[in-house]
Amino acid sequence: MPPHRVAVVAPSPVSMFNLAIPELLFAKVEIGGAPGYEVVVCTPDPGPIATTGGLDLYVNRGLDAVEGADTVLVAGTGQRYEPDPRTVAAVVTAAARGVRVASICSGAFVLAEAGLLDGRSATTYWELAEELRRRYPALDLKGDVLYVQDGNVMTSSGYAAGIDLCLHMIRTDYGAAVANTVARRALVAPVRPGGQTQFTHTPLPAERGVACADTRGWVMRNLDKPLTLTDLARHAGVSVRTLTRRFHAESGMSPLQWLLHQRVERAKELLETTTLTMDQIAQSSGLGSADSLRAHMTRRTGLPPTAYRSTFTRLTPTPA
Hints:
This protein is an alpha/beta fold and 320 residues long. It has two domains: 4-184, Rossmann fold (3-Layer(aba) Sandwich), CATH 3.40.50; 200-320, Arc Repressor Mutant, subunit A (Orthogonal Bundle), CATH 1.10.10.60. It has helices at 16-26, 85-96, 108-113, 129-135, 161-174, 176-186, 213-221, 229-236, 240-251, 255-273, 278-284, 290-301, 305-312, and strands at residues 4-9, 30-31, 34-35, 37-42, 47-50, 56-59, 71-74, 100-104, 121-122, 140-141, 147-150, 153-156. The strands form four sheets. It has a six-stranded mixed beta sheet with strand order 4-1-7-8-12-11, with helices on both faces. A two-stranded antiparallel ribbon has the order 2-3. A hairpin with a 2-residue loop joins strand 11 (147-150) and strand 12 (153-156). The protein is globular and about 55 Å long. It starts with a strand and ends in an 8-residue tail after the last helix.
């Protein structure tokens, strides 16, 4: 099959970080030795465009690149800006064709101006959330989450949340195993749930987010074991209270919430890529029993394990 074509629309000025995220992650997807995506960057006025860093960036494709895209992703500026009417029109046309439309950061203003967020759940960078809500009251703003998918429309908050959104797209298109492989190759965190908060109020520890890294790696190697909060604290060499504080500061969630998320992600991978039974998958992911697996999968994905396997298995499964 031809690669999935992604048209990334760059406003002016554009956040170079926003623009780099889809190129970095989608370029690492290989399916059967072939590229899984083709990424094309475009802009209303081809040529040099300003960036928020004060540099000029040359973009040689116009909005005609949107016409043949399977996904249209509007990058952001990291600040408030007026959507270009030409970009809005291109997004409206793309949505009418039924393609997936997404935004990073302030790109949500383009989707809102296009009417695509009316009656939908959406998010944007937290500093811009109130203005987006004020200007477009018909949308259901989720102001403190990483990303939101509502039907064929996706929005993310700012900065690194764009990474989470793109990994979510990869998982949607090619499955959890591929998305997690990309995350490992790019040295970023595995797919995080969209409902995770954008930021924490707890100051980061002196290690700037790596104090629990060894323990997280140890947990990932031992997901099939019945780990407790005490086990994690003992491995980290700290008290349960200290571990919980540091873990939340680094990951935005408690150790046990993070552990459960990783168990469910492991179960997804096994459902997609193996022929293991439900009991075997539950044991291998540390969820215990087939009943527990069913409850957690249904709560997290809206699908029981058997339905998830039939929906998301893309290759002939092989035994683990």
